[in-house]
Design goal:
- This protein has 7 helices and 12 strands.
- With 299 residues, the protein is of the alpha/beta class.
- Helix content is 31%, strand content 18%.
- Helix 5 packs across helix 6.
- The strands form 3 sheets. The protein has an 8-stranded mixed β-sheet, with helices on both faces. Strands 1-2 form a two-stranded antiparallel sheet. It has a two-stranded antiparallel sheet with strand order 7-8.
- The chain is globular, with a radius of gyration of 31 Å.
- It has 2 domains: 35 residues; 208 residues, Alpha/Beta hydrolase fold, catalytic domain (Rossmann fold, 3-Layer(aba) Sandwich), CATH 3.40.50.
């Protein structure tokens, strides 16, 4: 005889037994039917795939190499030797009577060994000797063209070892002036700036007001005591744009060991992920955002 029936949707459990065991089969029927009602579909897990596949260790003759730049002088390039994943780019523009090799050495000490440090050469100074060649830069537009050619050659030569996205853009004295000018072209690509001893006219109040609103993230101003007030004002105006900015003091020794160590201590702040803020006017009142506030890739 039929003693119990449990049904869930189209699934039924029917037990035919002696009536003395009917209660046992009723419990079993309910137990078997309930999981069928609530069972979650089995999803096969795919093996995890790394978003950035491991590359063969990057080989180079030394930590500093020459990078041929078509149409310009060769750039100096500090290479992240043995890198197995894409690495970011740091661009460093030297001063008015300098060498790109010196600049690369200083900024390698500031940024550490994990990035490509690209140091454009600029143009030879006519008043420098053969035994002590020095270099400067032409106009900001000339420097911009040289920089873009150097970036293109760096990406062409090192391919997958170069991380995509914004770069950290640095400059010392004349190089800082040119970096500030070039950054106006694409704040979302030149999103992090280190300006060391920039001139009084570099980084105007109008540029500061637009930097964060157009995608810029952080600016680190650094200089000696004689420039302290000017740099702190530039930092305040930049913060009002929605970007983050900081001014730090340096000794009078240019990019000597003491200042390199001091700048290295602030490097992690410069390259840390940005935290977008609402831009403000000079009175500290919130403004609407006219441009992108997050980092973007260069076209």
């Amino acid at each position: 005889m039929w003693c119990s029936r449990a049904t869930c949707g189209t699934i039924s459990v029917v037990a035919r037994r002696d009536c003395s065991h009917a209660w046992v089969w009723a419990v079993v029927s309910v137990f078997l039917a309930l999981p069928a009602c609530h069972r979650k579909p089995h999803v096969k897990k795919e093996p995890s795939v790394s978003a950035t596949p491991r590359l063969a260790p990057l080989a180079a003759a030394g930590w500093l190499v020459e990078l041929d730049v078509p149409g310009f002088g060769s750039a100096a390039l500090a290479v992240p030797r043995a890198a197995t994943q894409p690495r970011p780019i740091v661009v460093a523009l030297h001063g008015a009577a300098d060498r790109p090799e010196w600049s690369c050495g200083a900024f390698r000490g500031i940024a550490g060994p994990s990035a490509f440090v690209l140091c454009p050469r600029g143009i030879r100074r006519a008043d420098s000797s053969e035994s002590d060649p020095r270099f400067t830069f032409g106009t900001a537009d000339d420097t911009s063209r040289e920089l873009r050619a150097a970036l293109g050659e760096l990406k062409r030569k090192f391919g997958r070892y170069v991380a995509s996205g914004p770069i950290a853009f640095c400059g010392f004295e004349l190089g800082a002036d040119h970096a500030a000018w070039i950054a106006r072209e694409e704040p979302s690509f030149f999103a992090r700036l280190l300006l060391i001893e920039p001139g009084e006219l570099a980084w105007s109040s109008s540029q500061a007001a637009l930097f964060g609103r157009q995608g810029g993230v952080r600016v680190l101003f650094a200089g000696s005591a004689s420039n302290r007030d000017s740099l702190e004002l530039k930092a305040v105006l930049t913060q009002r744009s929605g970007a983050q900015a900081l001014a730090i003091g340096l000794d009078e020794g240019g990019l000597g060991p003491v200042n390199v160590r001091r700048l290295a201590q602030s490097w992690s702040w410069l390259v840390a992920p940005g935290k977008p803020r609402e831009p403000e006017n000079l009175a500290g009142n919130a403004l609407s955002v006219d441009g992108p506030k997050r980092e973007q890739r260069a076209p």
